[in-house]
């Protein structure tokens, strides 16, 4: 199979041609500062406001509730740190989960150093928060709950509607990191009473370095980046106009193409999961089959080291991931797999394959064949596998 097969869409995506086309005039030509008053600036301003509507429409928000940021990490830092510090007088307790992205986990760690107390909820074997456990964790001094919409490693979608309602009933601020869910699955801030939601453009065929924080009207979140009065005084810094325009276009495409993308990716994902589990012994699927992002498959191959598997797949032209790209090289074992109870030696053989809107059935078939071969090769070299085989004889 010629060319590269990209199965790491949860790490990042290539911008869509329509996105590139929308951005181009703002990279060269229409370079005005969106805060200036002459025509060149007004053109940029109008483009930013158009993008704000495009982003708002994905989740049923009002444009005024969208604040552009430099991406998901900034949105998470802003939501958690600023909300926690603002509500400090009411209490110092925060609830999150053990499977959050490091933008949330490390923001919580930083807050612990400032004297906040954080409860990291367990999840079930599929990676879902048990709402009963959440209710039990709430204390009179709980000021903030943050639970991700969908997990970046194993694709598990959380019962966000239920969680948001629990938080609202107790008047606790609720934030969700929706970076992996925004534009991928239906989200409605009209139906779900969440207060803040983080997104990122580059997981969605938009450019890197841009995203937004949705802040529900009436939620008094102060700014995190101080400076000029951009974004209605909530987020200083000259607007990244080409980036914002690209993000807006990517959001619009995601909204329009969502049913089609979901149907297509789900079908290919299920094909992939079925064939990998059937063709390769001693393999498990991480995460559940229900409540799973349409594009995510995550496996553990026993007696295999994930890093070695990545190298062999790379030689076949396949881009995949073990644990999450953001923590590659940091920690050998994924905190997410640990939280869902995968034993350490099995978690070491994890592989995440995340499909995209242009993934083809041929690519999936080729990937299954390559995986079969690569896993077999690695197991042939594995002492643990040889020992295990002996016990079978
Ligand atoms: C990628 C990702 C982030 C970080 O977003 P950036 O725009 O890369 O900073 C945060 N949360 C989740 C769940 C992610 O997948």
UniProtKB/TrEMBL annotation:
In short, the EC number is 2.8.1.7
Q: Summarize subunit and interaction data from the UniProt record for this chain.
A: Homodimer.
Q: Which of UniProt's keywords are assigned here? A: Iron, Iron-sulfur, Metal-binding, Pyridoxal phosphate, Transferase
Q: Which NCBIfam families match?
A: FeS_nifS, PRK02948.1
Name of the protein: Cysteine desulfurase
Top EC class, one word: transferase
Q: What GO molecular functions are on record for this protein?
A: cysteine desulfurase activity
Q: Which residues form the Aminotransferase class V domain?
A: 5-365
Spell out the family assignment given in the record's similarity comment. Answer: Belongs to the class-V pyridoxal-phosphate-dependent aminotransferase family. NifS/IscS subfamily.
Functional description taken from the UniProt entry: Catalyzes the removal of elemental sulfur atoms from cysteine to produce alanine.
Q: Which cofactor does it need?
A: pyridoxal 5'-phosphate
Catalyzes what?
Answer: (sulfur carrier)-H + L-cysteine = (sulfur carrier)-SH + L-alanine
């Amino acid at each position: 199979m010629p060319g590269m097969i990209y199965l790491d869409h949860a790490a990042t995506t290539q911008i869509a041609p329509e996105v590139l086309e929308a951005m181009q005039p703002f990279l060269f030509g229409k370079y005005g500062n969106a805060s200036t008053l002459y025509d060149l600036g007004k053109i940029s301003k109008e483009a930013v406001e158009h993008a704000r509507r495009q982003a708002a429409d994905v989740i049923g928000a009002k444009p005024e509730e969208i604040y552009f940021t430099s991406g998901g990490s900034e949105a998470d830092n802003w939501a958690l740190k600023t909300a926690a510090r603002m509500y400090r007088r009411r209490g110092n307790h925060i609830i999150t989960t053990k499977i959050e992205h490091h933008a949330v986990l490390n923001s919580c760690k930083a807050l612990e150093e400032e004297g906040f107390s954080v409860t990291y909820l367990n999840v079930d074997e599929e990676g879902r928060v048990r709402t009963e456990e959440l209710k039990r964790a709430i204390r009179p001094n709980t000021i903030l709950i943050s639970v991700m919409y969908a997990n970046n490693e194993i694709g598990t979608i959380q019962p966000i509607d239920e969680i948001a309602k629990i938080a609202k009933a107790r008047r606790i601020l609720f934030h969700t990191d929706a970076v992996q869910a925004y534009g991928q699955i239906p989200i409605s801030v009209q139906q779900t009473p969440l207060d803040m939601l983080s997104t990122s453009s580059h997981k969605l065929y938009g450019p890197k370095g841009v995203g937004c924080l949705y802040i529900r009207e009436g939620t008094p979140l102060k700014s995190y980046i101080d400076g000029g009065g951009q974004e209605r005084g909530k987020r200083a810094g000259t607007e990244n106009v080409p980036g914002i325009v690209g993000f807006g276009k990517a959001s619009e495409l995601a909204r329009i193409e969502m049913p089609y993308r979901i149907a297509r990716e789900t079908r290919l994902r299920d094909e992939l999961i079925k064939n990998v589990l059937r063709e390769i012994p001693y393999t498990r699927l991480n995460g559940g089959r229900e409540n799973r992002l349409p594009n995510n498959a995550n496996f553990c191959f026993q007696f295999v080291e994930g890093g070695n598997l990545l190298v062999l797949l790379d030689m076949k032209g396949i881009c995949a991931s073990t644990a999450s790209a953001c923590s590659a090289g940091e920690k050998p074992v994924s905190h997410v797999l640990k939280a869902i109870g995968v034993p350490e030696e099995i978690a070491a053989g994890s592989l995440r394959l995340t499909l995209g809107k242009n993934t083809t059935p041929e690519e999936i078939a080729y990937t299954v064949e390559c995986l079969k071969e690569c896993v077999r090769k690695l197991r042939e070299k594995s002492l643990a596998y040889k020992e295990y085989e002996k016990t079978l004889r």
